[in-house]
Design brief:
The structure is a single chain. The chain is an alpha/beta fold. The protein has one domain: Ribokinase (UDP-N-acetylmuramoyl-L-alanine:D-glutamate ligase, 3-Layer(aba) Sandwich), CATH 3.40.1190. It has four helices and nine strands. The two termini are about 25 Å apart.
Length: about 180
């Protein structure tokens, strides 16, 4: 059995629109390719750790919609426990629209949805299941107050933490001492 890796964080669906040019405000342009796929920095950490043989757990929120259902199916396929994932019926699963031109430049619009509702209470409720983790991963696609709370709580419990500081936001100075 591998190490236990818990990720507290985000799941998002990316909707990719490829076209020759990016639209200007108020303009409509034709594209030539569309695809969508699972993502989110937290989910990506989780899947990478799972593929590398870790015993993984995910503390997250998804919407009660088709994108949330797709996430659960994907985690099931990878053998990831979904016990700590909350289905939040008040908002959608996080989605992002990514417009890409022929030169690789992009415009991105993210709707945080359920990621924005992950809370310190979710972390408290999950603590008995994650306190024995070898490491817990975080990112900044959830509310900063929730991320900081989780990192500080796990530091007090002696659990190692990893922070992918993206998307970049200013961090409270006191948080640095608690990130392993």
């Amino acid at each position: 059995m591998g190490k236990t890796v818990t990720v507290i964080g985000s799941y998002s669906v990316g909707m990719f629109f490829k076209g020759y040019v990016l639209p200007n405000p108020g303009e409509t342009v034709n594209g030539y390719e569309f695809f969508e796929g699972p993502g989110g920095k937290g989910s990506n950490q989780l899947i990478a750790a799972t593929v590398m043989g870790a015993d993984t757990r995910f503390v997250a929120r998804i919407g009660n919609d088709r994108y949330g259902a797709d996430a659960l199916k994907m985690y099931e396929k990878y053998g990831v426990s979904t016990d700590l994932i909350k289905i939040d019926g008040s908002v959608s699963t996080s989605v992002g629209a990514i417009l890409i031109d022929s030169e690789g430049r992009n415009l991105i619009n993210i709707v945080s949805g359920a990621n924005g509702n992950l809370s310190p209470q979710d972390i408290d409720e999950s603590t008995p299941f994650i306190a024995d983790s070898d490491i817990v991963g975080f990112q900044l696609e959830n509310r900063l107050e929730t991320v900081a709370y989780g990192i500080q709580k796990l530091a007090k419990l002696g659990v190692k933490t990893l922070l992918d500081p993206a998307p970049a936001v200013p961090l409270p100075e006191e948080l640095y001492r608690d990130i392993t």
